[in-house]
């Protein structure tokens, strides 16, 4: 069952965050700050944008469309499906709709399972809006 996360979920959310971070391309570039992640999760729980299932999680925030700031979009920060990905996504989309977003922006890890994730997003009606690239300069 998918539900909004509560502060009681924080220990499990932190465990998932550590596992998710290990798969992220960022993990080879910077060290995870568990204090900052916990703070971010607490904020997502407070604003209702963090959802959990038996194993999965999705959370994000609301932000402006950069060229039309009167419009809001929900921006996913982390999505760990663990077999519940689409149900988690549907809960996040409903939160976005209920809070006045015109759409949802999703991202993928850039890892080997990207094709499967992208296919699921396309099936759910998502289109590629832009692709991100990163280059370490320090």
Largest sheet: 5 strands, mixed
CATH-defined topology: Aminopeptidase
Q: H/E element string?
A: EHHEEEHEH
State Rg: 15 Å
Beta-strand percentage range: 15-25%
Helix content range of the residues, please? Answer: 25-40%
What does this structure look like?
The chain is α+β, with helices and mostly antiparallel strands. The chain has one domain: Aminopeptidase (3-Layer(aba) Sandwich), CATH 3.40.630. The chain is 37% helix and 23% strand. The chain contains four helices and five strands, in the order βααβββαβα. Strands 1-2-3-4-5 form a five-stranded mixed sheet.
Keyphrases for this structure?
138 residues; alpha+beta; 5-stranded mixed beta sheet; 37% helix; globular
Produce a short descriptive summary:
This protein has 138 residues and is α+β, with helices and mostly antiparallel strands. The protein has helices at 10-23, 34-46, 85-98, 114-123, and strands at 3-4, 50-52, 57-65, 68-80, 101-105.
Describe how the helices and strands are arranged.
Blueprint: E1 3-4, H1 10-23, H2 34-46, E2 50-52, E3 57-65, E4 68-80, H3 85-98, E5 101-105, H4 114-123
Parallel strand pairs: 4-5
Antiparallel strand pairs: 1-2, 2-3, 3-4
Helix pairs in contact: 1-2
């Amino acid at each position: 069952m998918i539900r909004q996360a509560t502060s009681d979920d924080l220990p499990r959310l932190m465990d998932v965050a550590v596992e998710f971070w290990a798969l992220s391309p960022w993990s080879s570039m910077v060290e995870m700050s568990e204090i900052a992640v916990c703070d971010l999760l607490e904020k997502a729980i407070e604003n209702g944008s963090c959802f959990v299932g038996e194993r999965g999680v999705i959370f994000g925030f609301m932000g402006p469309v950069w060229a039309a700031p009167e419009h809001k979009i929900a921006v996913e920060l982390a999505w760990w499906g663990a077999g519940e990905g689409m149900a988690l996504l549907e809960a996040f989309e409903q939160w976005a709709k209920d809070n006045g977003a015109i759409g949802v922006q999703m991202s993928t890890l850039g890892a080997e399972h990207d094709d499967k994730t992208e296919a699921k997003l396309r099936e759910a009606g998502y289109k590629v809006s832009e692709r991100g690239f990163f280059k370490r300069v320090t």
